[in-house]
Amino acid sequence: MDAADSTGSAKRSDWTPELRMQRFKETVTAVLAFLLVASTMVLTYRTFGMAGQDGQMKDAMGVLSLLFGLAGVVVGYYFGRVPSDARAVEAHQTTQMAMDTMRDMSGASSTANQMAKKTQKIQADLDAALDKAKMTPERLDAAGRGDDNDLRQLANIVSRLQDEIGELQGMAHR
């Protein structure tokens, strides 16, 4: 019994004031439409009984002309509403898909920007490493540097570049 009560209260809590008002409007509209169409049909039936009575037939035809117009509007509204509601739902779904795509593209753009910055840093480090690698031993001695120290620096730069390239590959796979 508790499970039924909890689902019943959950269903009741789903009805927001806007949904209740919409339901009320739909109910009133449906009742009015039904009454209008039903009265048109009843008067049409009664008009067949007036055949041959010119005065009453003329009056009945005037009333029926008015009611047929209103009944046509009501029927057109209800039959036209179903396809338009379906199109509105489809348009809403398309909008949601477009927004999701834009969000995904924004994330991809952010990742691409991060990768571009990382690539620029790697390029600068590579340029520095290439400059060191191109130095001849004589130029290194002339600059007063020892070969072992420079080789260690080059090894550190290459190691750091390998790590940064690994980070870039990780970004690319996201």
Report what the structure shows:
The chain has 174 residues and is mainly α. It has one domain (15-172). The protein is 90% helix and 0% strand. It is built from 5 helices and no strands. Helix 2 packs antiparallel against helix 3 (54-134) and helix 3 runs antiparallel to helix 5. The longest helix has 81 residues, at 54-134. The radius of gyration is 40 Å and the shape is rod-shaped.
Which outline best applies? rod-shaped
The total count of helices amounts to 5
Helix fraction, binned, reads: over 70%
Beginning-to-end CA distance, first to last residue:
49 Å
Biggest sheet record: none
What is the count of distinct domains? 1
Strand portion, in percent?
under 5%
- Sequence stretches where pLDDT stays below 50 over 5 or more residues: none
Number of strands: 0
Radius of gyration from CA coordinates: 40 Å
Helix vs. strand class: mainly alpha
Query: What is the succession of H and E elements?
Result: HHHHH
Mean pLDDT metric:
76
Structure in a nutshell:
With 174 residues, the chain is mainly α. It has one domain. It contains five helices and no strands.
Record the SSE blueprint.
Elements: H1 2-13, H2 17-48, H3 54-134, H4 137-142, H5 147-172
